[in-house]
C-alpha cells in the first residue's frame, strides 16, 4: 500500500501499529507513529465528517467516527507520556461518542485532557480532579486501569506543587493502586495486553516509594510481584527494563532507609 492516496484501511493499520509499539517499542517510535496516525486521519478527513467523499462515502459513518475518537485520546496519552507536542488537525470536531459512551467514560478523556502540560491547574483544582476521577463508575477493565494511571499522574502534579494532600486523597490513591494492580495482573494472565498493564503498576510503584509512609510501603511488595508476573508473561525487552528499573529504585530506597537508621544510631 502507498501513502499517496491513503484510505480508512491505512488509518486502521497505523492505529494497530501504534497500539503494538506502545506495548513493545520505544517511546519515540510510538509517539512518531501516533503522529503519523493523526496526519493520516486529517488526510482522509476523518476528523470532519462533512468533508468525507469519494471512496469513503460507502464506509460506515460510525466506523469513521470511532477511529477518530479512539485515535485522538491514544495520541494525547502518548504525547503526554513522552512530554511531546500533539498533532491537532484544523477543524477537528469534538469527541462524538456520546451515544456509545457513558458520561463517566467520556469524563476519563476530558480529565486526561486537563493534564495538558501547557495548562496550569491550581493544587486545589488538581485535588478535586483526582477525587472526581477516582469516583467515576467504570466497567471496562481498560478504562479502570486508565483511571488509575490518570490519578497517579494527577498526584505527581500535586507532589511537584508541594501541596500536602488530604487523607481522603491518600486513601483513594491506595485504593486505586490496589485496583489497578489487580486489573493489570488479570489482563496479563488472560493474555489481553493493554499498554497500561505495565505503566500503571510501575507508576504506582514509584508513587508508593515517593509517599514513603508505612501505609504506602506495605503495598510495594504486591505491586512488585505484579510487575514480575507481567514480565514473566510477556518477556519483552521493554518490560524487563521496567522491572530492572523498579528493582534499582527499591535498592536506592533501601539504602536511604539504612543511611537514615545509621544516622539515628550515632
Can you describe what's shown?
With 266 residues, the chain is mainly α. It folds into two domains: 1-101; 102-265, Serine Threonine Protein Phosphatase 5, Tetratricopeptide repeat (Alpha Horseshoe). Helix content is 71%, strand content 0%. It has eleven helices and no strands. The radius of gyration is 20 Å and the shape is globular. It starts with 7 loop residues before the first helix and ends with a helix. Keywords: DNA-binding, Metal-binding, Nucleus, Transcription, Transcription regulation, Zinc.
- Spell the H/E element sequence: HHHHHHHHHHH
Report the sheet-strand fraction: under 5%
The CATH architecture of the largest domain would be Alpha Horseshoe
Top CATH class of the largest domain: Mainly Alpha
Q: State the end-to-end CA separation.
A: 71 Å
Helicity level: over 70%
Structurally, the number of domains stands at: 2
Radius of gyration computed on alpha carbons: 20 Å
Which class best fits the helix and strand makeup?
mainly alpha
Number of helices: 11
- Which ranges are low-confidence, i.e. pLDDT below 50, for 5 or more consecutive residues? 53-57
Mean pLDDT, as a whole number?
84
Number of strand elements:
0
CATH topology of the largest domain: Serine Threonine Protein Phosphatase 5, Tetratricopeptide repeat
Amino acid at each position: 500500500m502507498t501513502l499517496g492516496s491513503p484510505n480508512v484501511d491505512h488509518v486502521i493499520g497505523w492505529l494497530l501499529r501504534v497500539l503494538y509499539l506502545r506495548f513493545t517499542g520505544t517511546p519515540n517510535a510510538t509517539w512518531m507513529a501516533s503522529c503519523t496516525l493523526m496526519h493520516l486521519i486529517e488526510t482522509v478527513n476523518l476528523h470532519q465528517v462533512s468533508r468525507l467523499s469519494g471512496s469513503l462515502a460507502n464506509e460506515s459513518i460510525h466506523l469513521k467516527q470511532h477511529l477518530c475518537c479512539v485515535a485522538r485520546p491514544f495520541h494525547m496519552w502518548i504525547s503526554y507520556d513522552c512530554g511531546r507536542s500533539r498533532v491537532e488537525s484544523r477543524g477537528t470536531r469534538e469527541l462524538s461518542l456520546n451515544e456509545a459512551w457513558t458520561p463517566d467514560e467520556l469524563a476519563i478523556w476530558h480529565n486526561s485532557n486537563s493534564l495538558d502540560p501547557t495548562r496550569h491547574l491550581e493544587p486545589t483544582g488538581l485535588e478535586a480532579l483526582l477525587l472526581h476521577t477516582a469516583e467515576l463508575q467504570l466497567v471496562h477493565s481498560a478504562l479502570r486501569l486508565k483511571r488509575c494511571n490518570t490519578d497517579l499522574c494527577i498526584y505527581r502534579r500535586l507532589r511537584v506543587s508541594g501541596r500536602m494532600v488530604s487523607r481522603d486523597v491518600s486513601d483513594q490513591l491506595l485504593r486505586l493502586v490496589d485496583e489497578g494492580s489487580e486489573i493489570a495482573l488479570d489482563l496479563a494472565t488472560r493474555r489481553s495486553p493493554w499498554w497500561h498493564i505495565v505503566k500503571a503498576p510501575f507508576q504506582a510503584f514509584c508513587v508508593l516509594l515517593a509517599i514513603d509512609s508505612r501505609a504506602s510501603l506495605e503495598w510495594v511488595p504486591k505491586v512488585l510481584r505484579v510487575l514480575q508476573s507481567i514480565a514473566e508473561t510477556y518477556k519483552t525487552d521493554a518490560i524487563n527494563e521496567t522491572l530492572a528499573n523498579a528493582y534499582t529504585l527499591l535498592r536506592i530506597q533501601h539504602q536511604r532507609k539504612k543511611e537514615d537508621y545509621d544516622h539515628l544510631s550515632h
